[in-house]
Amino acid sequence: MATPTSRGASGHEPAYFPDGDQTFGQDDGPWEEWNPTEESVRPVRGRHRVGKQRGGFARSSTVLGVGVIAAVGAGGIATAKDRPPVPISLPDLSGVTDSLPDAESLPGVGSLISDSDESADAGSDFSGVTQAAAAGGAPVAQLDGGQQAASADAGEALRSRIMQQAESKQDEAAAAEQAAAADAAAKAAAEEAEKQQTEAEKKAAEAKRKAEEEAKRKAEAERLAKLARSFVSPLSSYTISTTYGQAGSMWASGYHTGLDFAAPTGTPIKSIHSGTVKEAGWSGSYGYRTVVELEDGTELAYNHQSSMSVSVGQKVTTGDVIGRVGSTGNSTGPHLHFEVKTPGGDLMDPGAWLRDKGISL
């Protein structure tokens, strides 16, 4: 049996030498060439199969398809409307392919070709794509009608979605504007209502104040009217000749200590209020003098009388005649010198006291 050796230096099929210890390259004896047979060569199956050697045009088409896909991914999709197709020239490989033997004639190779024909044919079919040259030399792809329609539909869908988003944003902006306007109107209405309420409260407070003042005025008027019924003027007809506090050398204190009612001699003098006669008689510079003490301790003095009608300890009521106008004592003419002392004994303005009791002078 011949023993195979490694491939020779010339690249021919490995040589087999006859039995014996033969060395490659030596001329020690005759050797014979090994010819494969169907029994010695079996088809290689499984994952160790050798890929089919396809013709030159199929391989070029595959390379062209890969180039077109790479160009499309790098530079975008260009349609036939934008760029004219550029013709591609390929070398004529017919002479080479004609000289090659048929694959089916090679033992153990036909099955490999038959198994991979479908995948090869499917991978090399780029009938709808041609390569074009873009401005500046960049390759672009030309799409057929179906691909153009699909691209147009995708663009229209994108445009529609963008328009919908824009309309949604506009609706949101309009809603926000309406809400802001409603809030502003509500705020203005609240401020106006608060302003009106404040003004109403001010008016109500002012009306209440005026009502209270009016009530006080009426109460005071009623009080004075009541006092007027219990207090009367000492003279029915008179003229105020000298007021309280006037300065002068004719008065020992240096000022006038009472209120003078000038009237003719003999004019009746009435008791201003009910009380008890405390003094009745001559009193020096005061002439004939009558003093009536009221219930609260206030003393009313009637001076310069021409005559007296009451005595000490006598009870008198409002309007009783207690004497008559005269000019006795330190007097320059007929008049009633009227004085008022507080319960503590201090002199006070008779005019103010009479007005407080509701008597107009």
From TrEMBL:
Q: Where is the M23ase beta-sheet core domain?
A: 255-349
What keywords does the record list, in alphabetical order? Answer: Hydrolase
Membrane-traversing stretches? none
Query: Looking at the record, which segments are called Disordered?
Result: 1-56, 99-125, 164-214
The EC number of this protein is: 3.4.-.-
Record field: compositional bias (Low complexity) = 173-188
Q: Which GO terms describe its molecular function?
A: hydrolase activity
Q: In its UniProt entry, what is this protein called?
A: M23 family metallopeptidase
